[in-house]
Design brief:
two-stranded antiparallel sheet, elongated, mainly alpha
Length: 218
């Protein structure tokens, strides 16, 4: 929100008095955020911010009309057809991640398998990185012919304060059970064997302090 506000709203509308904001103003501004069918996320976020600004102005008697953003026509967006990786591309990505920083003479600590393991689970499940890092061993079922993982939460990393596991997914439909391919099963079996005694929370991706791993820990 702050980035969209700073990059688009302040340069585009910041100089206007609040009373000059009309539906046509909002409509023209939001349409200007799309170029060649791209920018729909900026439009969505910009519309939310603008609606909240005008609601604030109305509550404090700075604007006497109805919220002009509510009357803005819905902007169409180009539907994107999902593109799946073929097997050569998938294996190339996995190999590139495994070999990253493995060359002789690279400064810094020796890389671990954490990054490649996280990427493998993301590739094999299609889950978001926060959902993958929130996996616990109780969410993993490797007992049947086909392994499965249950997506039941996500890692939240607030700007202030420690990260934590949220016991809910980003959307209500995000909770799901996903069958996993053999290469993900192999990763999970190895990580289960490697899980240290300090991993008291039962995280699939743990830190040495016994907490959930964050994206930059990989």
């Amino acid at each position: 929100y702050e980035a969209v506000m700073r990059r688009y709203l302040i340069p585009g509308l910041g100089a206007l008095p609040i009373r000059a904001i009309r539906t046509s103003t909002c409509d023209a501004f939001l349409r200007s955020l799309t170029v060649d069918g791209k920018g729909s996320s900026n439009v969505r976020i910009g519309k939310t911010i603008l609606r909240q600004i005008m609601s604030y102005a109305i509550r404090h008697d700075l604007y006497v009309d109805a919220n002009p953003v509510l009357e803005v026509d819905r902007l169409s967006r180009n539907a994107k057809k999902p593109q799946a990786l073929d097997m050569p591309a998938l294996e190339a990505i996995r190999a590139a991640v495994r070999n990253w920083r493995s060359e002789p003479g690279v400064p810094g600590p020796a890389p671990t398998s954490a990054l490649s393991d996280v990427v493998d689970v993301m590739l094999g499940t299609g889950a978001r990185i926060g959902e993958v890092l929130a996996l616990r061993w109780q969410d993993v079922d490797l007992s049947g012919e086909v392994g499965k993982v249950s997506i039941t939460g996500t890692i939240v990393e607030p700007r202030k304060g420690p990260k934590f596991r949220q016991d809910a997914t980003k959307t209500a439909s995000g909770a799901r059970i996903i069958p996993i391919p053999r290469f993900v099963v192999d990763v999970l079996l190895r990580r289960r064997l490697e899980s240290p005694a300090t991993n008291t929370i039962g995280a699939v991706f743990w830190t040495r302090n016994g907490t959930y791993m964050q994206a930059w820990d990989c």
